[in-house]
Amino acid sequence: MTVTLVRPENQTDPLTFRPLPTTVSAPGVSQDAPSAGPTRPFGLTRTTELPQPKAPLPLDGLRYDPQRQLTITRDGEAAVSSVPLPLAVTHQNTQYDHQWVTDNDEG
Amino acid sequence: MAASVVVITRDQDTTADLVLLHLLRRGVEVARFDLGDFPERLRQVAYLVPGRKRWTGALVGQHRDVDLSAVRAIWYRKPSGVQLDPGMTTTEQRWALAEATMGLGGLLASLPGVHWVNHPHRNAQASLKPRQLAVADACGLAVPESLLTTSPERAREFCAAHRDRGVIYKPLHGGPGSEAGQHVALWADTVAAGEITEGVGRTCHLFQVRVPCAYAVRMTIVGERIFAVRLDTPPGSTAVDWRQVHDHLTYAPIDVPDEVADGMHRLMQVFGLTYSASDWIVTPAGVWTFIGDLNPNGQWGWLEHEAGMPIAAALADELVKEHA
User: Fold this and answer.
1) Can you name the CATH fold of B212-320?
2) How do the domains of chain B map onto residue ranges?
3) Helix axes B129-138, B258-271, angle to 10 degrees
4) What ipTM, to 2 d.p.?
5) φ and ψ at residue B123, rounded to 5 degrees
6) Does the beta-carbon distance from B277 to A107 stay under 8 Å?
7) Mutation site for A-interface testing, chosen from B6, B11, B78 by largest number of A Cβ within 10 Å
8) Is the pLDDT of residue B89 over 80?
C-alpha cells in the first residue's frame, strides 16, 4: 500500500514543481525505522549517524532590524561587521557558513 | 526612491547581510523580504493592463514596498516557506499554498529585464546531477565515468570492473536528514561489488569511478569572476567527502586553469546561471575533475571568512551592474 504524506516540509520536495523553492532551517526528526532486507534502498544503507546538534549558541542582543534589513547587535551595529559570528556547522551538506542557525538545505 | 535590487531570503540569513552591507554602503536601494512574510505581511497588488506587456504594481510590505517597475535585479537565496493563516484547514492551506507560490512566483518570473542571481527555475535544472555531468562533459570538462542505475547486477559489474581505482556511491539529491530519531548524513563514499544490495532496485543510484584526489577545490563563480579555494583534509585523513572533516580543513586560494575556467563559463551559460559553487577534485597529475556537484545556490560565506575571498563584494557588483 502506498501512503502519501503531506507535510509542511513538502515545500522542499525536489520532485514537485516549485515556482518559489524554499528551505527548512529546522526540519523535524523522522522516527521512521529503516526497512529490512531488499526493501531498504541501497543508498540509505550508507547513512552515518550524526552526533546531536551543538547546543544553541548565546545570541543575546542580536535581532533582525526590518528597517535596516540586517541583523544588528544590542548597540545597533550590523552583526556581521561587529561580532565574530560563530561558524555553525551542519553535517548533512556543504553549507558551512556564517550562520548561527543550522542550515539544512541543499548545497 | 524605489528599490532596484530585491533580496529574497530568511531574516536570519547573515550571509545575505554581508552583501546587504556592500549594497547599502554604495547607496543602493534594496528591498529584502522572506517568503515567510507572504501573503499575510507582504501584500501583492499587480495589474496587467492590455497593451502594456508587463505586470505593474507593488509588493506592499510592513516596512517598505517593492515597485515592480523599478526592479532590476533579484537575488534569490534561501527563503523560508510561505506562512499561511493557521486558522485555515489543511485543505485550505494546501490550496492557498499552491495559489500563493504560483501567483508570486509567476509574477516575479514575468518581470522583464530583471537580472536574477539565480532564477530558481534555472537552479532547479542545474541541480540535476545527471544533467550537470553530461553538460560538463559536453563543455570539455573532465568528469568521472559514471553509472546511473536501478539494476543491482549492473552496479556490481561496474564496481567489479573498476575495483582497481575504486567506485564511489553518491546520492543524487542529498541525505534523508534524519531517521529513527537520529540525525543522519549520507556522504559520498567508496563501495565494493560485494556491498551492493538488491536495494539498488528501489530507486536510482549514482556510482562513479573514484577520481584520485590530490586536493579538493570549491569554485565559486559570480558572473565572470571565479573564486577558487583549495581544500586540504588533515594529514592521514581517509575521508572521501571533505564534509566529513569540515572542522579540520585548511584553505588556500588557487588559480583555475584557463581551459577549466572556459569550460565552466560555457556550462554556466548552458544553465543560464550567474552564480554557482561547484566542487572539484584535482588529481595528482593535475587534472581538474568536475564530480557532479554544481551547487547553483551553494554556500560561500565561510570561504570569504576562511580564505579571504571577496565574494560578497562580487555579488553586490553583480546585482547593481547594468545588464543588456
Assistant:
1) D-amino Acid Aminotransferase; Chain A, domain 1 (3.30.470)
2) 5-117, 145-209, 212-320
3) 130
4) 0.87
5) -60, -40
6) yes
7) B78
8) yes
Cite the beta strand spans of chain A per DSSP E: 48-49, 63-65, 70-72
> Is B104 touching A (CB cutoff 8 A)?
yes
Given the candidates 3.40.50, 1.10.1760, 3.30.70, 2.60.120, the CATH classification of the domain at B5-117 is 3.40.50
**Chain centroid to CA B255:** 22
Contact A85 B10 (CB under 8 A): no
A36 interfacial to chain B (CB closer than 8 Å)? no
Asked if B33 and B8 count as a contact pair (C-beta separation under 8 A), the reply is: yes
> Do residue B200 and residue A69 have CB atoms under 8 angstroms apart?
no
Residue B57: which of B114, B2, B100 has the closest Cα?
B2
| Residues of chain A found within 8 Å of residue B80, distances taken between Cβ atoms | 22-25
Nearest residue in A to B181, CA atom: A31
- CATH number 3.30.1490 given to B145-209: yes
pLDDT digits (tens, 9 = 90+) for A48-68: 888 766 555 556 678 999 999
Instruction: Report yes or no: A4 at the B interface, CB cutoff 8 Å.
Output: no
- The residue behind cell 494546501 is B94
- Count other Cβ atoms within 10 Å, centred on residue B80: 20
d(C-alpha B228, C-alpha B242), whole Å? 16
List the one residue out of B107, B86, B84 whose CA is nearest residue B8. Answer: B107
Cβ proximity of B248 and B234 under 8 Å = yes
pTM (predicted TM-score): 0.88
Cβ proximity of B260 and B266 under 8 Å: no
Residue of chain B whose alpha carbon sits nearest to that of A10: B81
pLDDT single digits (tens) B237-286: 777 777 777 778 889 999 999 999 999 999 999 999 999 999 999 999 99
Question: A107 and B298 in contact (C-beta within 8 Å)?
Answer: yes
- Partners of A31 on chain B (C-beta within 8 Å) are 180-181
Residue B176 in grid coordinates: 534523508
For residue B81, which residues of chain A lie inside 8 Å, CB to CB? 8, 11, 22, 24
List A residues 63-82 in contact with B (Cβ-Cβ < 8 A). 64, 66-71, 78-81
Sheet holding B146-149, edge to edge: B146-149, B205-209, B167-170, B189-191
